[in-house]
Amino acid sequence: WILFLPHSVYIYLITSCFVPPHFTSSGFHFLSAVVEVHALPLLVYLMVPSTTLIFTALSNLRQNAFLYFL
């Protein structure tokens, strides 16, 4: 639950910037600033589960191949 909190906060900020009454030039600058500040942690946050899934799949393949060759 705590891990999903920053992601939902980013989504809320971006969607609140895209709401038409708030979407002015200042809202666009705020959106670009939010994207620039949080792009790297968000990329890392999105990349970590996929890399762990890939590593677990590779380890499972290795274990299955090891059992197969036994």
UniProtKB/TrEMBL annotation:
The keyword Transmembrane helix applies. The chain crosses the membrane at residues 9-30, 42-61. Keywords: Membrane, Transmembrane, Transmembrane helix. The keyword Transmembrane helix applies. This is Uncharacterized protein. It comes from Rhodocollybia butyracea.
